[in-house]
Amino acid sequence: MEDTFYDQVGGHAFFHSLVNSFYERVETDEQLRPMYPEDLTESKRHFELFLEQYWGGPKTYAEERGHPRLRMRHAPFRITKGARDAWLAAMEAAMESVKSSLSDEQFVELHSYFDMAAHQMRNV
Asked: Which fold has domain 9-121?
């Protein structure tokens, strides 16, 4: 059986680092920060669990929250081109911070996914 992407990149530790790095940027971004609750603990946890599940890790996200329904969960927020671009910039910086644990192919695959997802979430 082939290892999942989750396994290949180091499992929980990798996604934990990626998400923490991403949220460090969210916390200081004038456009993104208002879209998140004051306490980011649950937002971080949900994002981490979602990414782990999406990339072949534990199914904890689905067990706790059901189907991801990403567009529905993001619908209450005005996701403009600018917000999308700010989110992508924060994620790209986070990816750079963990790049040393990825192959070039894994980096491209992860980047492609985030780019696609960010464009799909735009709703304004």
From this structure: Globin-like (1.10.490)
